[in-house]
Amino acid sequence: MDLLPLLSWACIVFTVGMFSTGLTDLKKMRESKSSDNIQFLPFLTTCLNNLGWLYYGILKKDQTIILVNIIGALLQILYIIMYFRYTKQKRLVSSQTLTAVIVLTCGWLYFTMFLTDRDIQLNQLGLTCSVVTVSMYLSPLTDLVEIVRSGNVQCLSFPLTVATFFTSTSWVFYGLQLNDYYIVVPNTPGILTSLIRLYLFWKFASVSQSSPSYKPVQI
């Protein structure tokens, strides 16, 4: 039985679901007319990551990677636009966005003008995207340490944790089917960090429910 089509659909459904968790923040911004307690950089870095993987999918001619990252990039651009609309720190957001555009442009020029061999392009781009993805998955570890100390999981998003677990798992199996370790390796930390978060929910959820409620900040 060929599992690749099934894994392809799993990657599409779970990844789009994970990206769609940002709609919760979008709803909060529209209702409150404010971007307070919502972080901007995750939207920006995820958008850059989506565009990098999109180019990787184009070079690899992988329709699953292309489709997922087109949808992801469009959603992140929507979140960025809405954040800019409601934030009070428009100058800071503009400078961060401009920096991201410059980095993206420099990366595109490097991969298109200085690397002419397609295999070298694919390998270097895969490595770059893998490093960025791993760093994004590992970046909340310091917050997880603080949660262990405080015993409060209210700053974690349970739907995002579940979505990340299923997304990372589906991509790992998809990458194994293709023998593409640029897909397998960066998604493995996503499984591990999700399991850690789920354990923290199981261990501290009852403690958090008995404590005063605060407006959560997604990690």
TrEMBL record:
Chief localisation class: membrane
InterPro entries reported for this sequence: SWEET, SWEET_rpt
Annotated membrane topology: Multi-pass membrane protein
Highest taxon, organism lineage: Eukaryota
A family per Pfam: MtN3_slv
GO cellular component entries: Golgi membrane; plasma membrane
GO molecular function, one term: sugar transmembrane transporter activity
Subcellular location: Cell membrane; Golgi apparatus membrane
Transmembrane segments: 6-26, 38-58, 64-86, 98-116, 122-141, 153-175, 181-202
Keywords: Cell membrane, Golgi apparatus, Membrane, Repeat, Sugar transport, Transmembrane, Transmembrane helix, Transport
Family per similarity comment: Belongs to the SWEET sugar transporter family.
Role: Mediates sugar transport across membranes.
Entry-linked PANTHER family: RAG1-ACTIVATING PROTEIN 1, SUGAR TRANSPORTER SWEET1
This protein's name: Sugar transporter SWEET1
Organism: Amphilophus citrinellus (Midas cichlid)
Lineage summary: Eukaryota, Metazoa, Chordata, Craniata, Vertebrata
